[in-house]
């Protein structure tokens, strides 16, 4: 970044860390892709994954764990092709071309709009942009000398550690994932957000529960972190996990228009939810009322026709 950029240029450059995981290279002749820096491998940037030592470790023996993992995870489709150029691919669109709409949709659908909780969305939005005042940021501002994690006492607290690498947070995530009958892979911070955006999609009960659980877990981990710093109140992970579950369930109980899908009964039972939150139950009730009205109309029509045919026989019944 230059020493005196304009405000707009500085803001654009600050997005590089957010955009980097989304732009992947399709290898051609290999002339324009940096081996260690660019996002061409399933692991992402090899320099970010293995650290600076990878630049000097190209002569490691073949029994090195990291190199074996790297070789094993490289699919044949990533071998260079001398007849074609290297192509950057925007992974959020079908044709690989960049669009502002797809960039916005990438995170906005996960965080904003129904059925999410506004105060929860605000905290997660700040977290995705790495603007929460974690220990590493406070140290940069000169407000902390030792940015240790308040949850597990690790030497350095940052967004990635606090929400996913911390032992305390990891145990909370494990319980929430089991409650959602799901599994989220171990990925770098922003790549996990990208994974969640793509996988937690749709309006089914499962998608709604996973989205709320994902966002509320962020929120309560951050609240517990602040509680330990400012109030000196320490809650075990079981209490925090229960608070997450109750927040998700409370939001679900206020809904009555979730589209019904096969397998929803499992989630209704798992989260102790009434079937009235599903749109199907409302539709079925409407159909029952409609069928009852049809029966009544048919009865009226039948007895009406009988009266018209023999009015004297029905004088007493009138």
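^ Assign residues to that structure.
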């Amino acid at each position: 970044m230059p020493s005196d950029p304009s405000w707009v240029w500085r803001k654009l450059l600050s997005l590089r860390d957010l955009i980097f995981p989304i732009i992947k290279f399709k290898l051609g002749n290999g002339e324009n892709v940096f081996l260690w820096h660019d996002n061409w491998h399933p692991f992402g940037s090899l320099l970010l994954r293995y650290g600076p030592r990878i630049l000097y470790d190209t002569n490691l023996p073949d029994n090195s764990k990291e190199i074996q993992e790297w070789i094993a995870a490289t699919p044949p489709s990533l071998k260079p092709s001398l007849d074609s150029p290297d192509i950057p691919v925007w992974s959020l669109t079908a044709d690989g071309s960049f669009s502002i709409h797809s960039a916005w949709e990438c995170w906005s659908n996960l965080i904003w709009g129904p059925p999410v909780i506004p105060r929860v969305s605000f905290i997660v939005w700040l977290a995705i942009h790495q603007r929460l005042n974690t220990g590493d940021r406070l140290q940069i501002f000169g407000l902390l000398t030792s940015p240790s994690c308040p949850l597990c006492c690790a030497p350095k607290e940052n967004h990635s550690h606090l929400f996913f690498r911390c032992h305390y947070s990891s145990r909370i995530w494990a319980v929430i994932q089991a409650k959602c009958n799901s599994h989220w892979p171990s990925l770098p911070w922003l790549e996990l957000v990208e994974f969640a955006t793509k996988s937690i999609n749709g309006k089914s009960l499962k998608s709604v529960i996973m989205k709320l659980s994902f966002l509320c877990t962020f929120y309560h981990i951050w609240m517990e972190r602040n509680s330990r710093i400012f109030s000196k109140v320490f809650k075990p992970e079981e209490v925090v996990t229960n608070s997450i579950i109750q927040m998700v369930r409370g939001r679900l109980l206020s809904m009555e228009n979730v589209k019904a899908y096969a397998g929803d009964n499992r989630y209704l039972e798992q989260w102790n939810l009434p079937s009235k939150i599903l749109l199907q139950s409302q539709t079925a009730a409407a159909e029952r009322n409609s069928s009852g009205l049809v029966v009544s109309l048919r009865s009226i029509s039948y007895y009406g026709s009988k009266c018209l045919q023999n009015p004297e026989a029905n004088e007493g019944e009138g």
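Residues 42 and 73 are 7 Å apart (CA to CA).
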